[in-house]
Amino acid sequence: MEPILSVEGLTKRFNQDKSSVLAVDNISFQLFSGDCLGIVGESSCGKSTTVNLITRLKDVDSGKIILNGIDITSAKGKSLHSVYQKMQMVFQFPQDSFNPHQKLNDAIIEPLINNGMSKREAKKQLPYLLDLVGLDLSLINNKYSYELSGGQCQRVAIARAIAIKPKILICDEATSALDVISQKQIVDLLKKLQKQFNLSIILITHDLSLVRQICNRVIVMYRGKIVEENSTNEILQNPQQEYTKLLIQSTV
């Protein structure tokens, strides 16, 4: 089986004062159709930088990103637009991911309009998209992001992300800003959508209990490097690296 996403030797440095920091250090991994891949590690280990490189929110210093067999490492303009048709992202703070002056109705259908659908047809998709994430149109109708709870707003963010039927959904600490009940609801929702649409998911998190619930594979990062990669069960039950063992112990 060919991977839907292949990352090869990805590297990124950031200048800091008079020195530079190697945020992502020559990492390689693959994502297959229907996978849920967890990328775990402590803060500043390179997790979020990795997905920012994959989604081309930041430029790559060296390495390759292959999406559906196409090299997107230097994608710009129309090429970058085609990347976002296949890959969407859900961020940590749901309210902050929306324009506070844009009604949520318009925010959800904006990707559809940007991809050529008329506004009239896009509006017809709203009830369906909201139903997918367990919300009713009456709840969000003519409202702004700050008028919803964190959990509700994250559901809206997921509805917007899946509107154009991407192949890959990247969740960057998508539950960490939510209360425990909302966290479980979002995890259950992601599992349902993954099964329904055969979504491939990359889950960026420091929460190993979350990884246990949804991921079938795990990458452990430390200081910009991948120090261990295996099935979720093997990582949690039989970790090989000392850092992985410490990470697991710290969450028990």
UniProtKB/TrEMBL annotation:
InterPro entries: AAA+_ATPase (IPR003593), ABC_transp_ATP-bind (IPR050319), ABC_transporter-like_ATP-bd (IPR003439), ABC_transporter-like_CS (IPR017871), P-loop_NTPase (IPR027417). GO terms for molecular function: ATP binding; ATP hydrolysis activity. One of its GO terms (biological process) is transmembrane transport. It is an enzyme of class 3 (hydrolase). It comes from the Bacteria. Belongs to the ABC transporter superfamily. This is Glutathione import ATP-binding protein GsiA. It comes from Megamonas hypermegale.
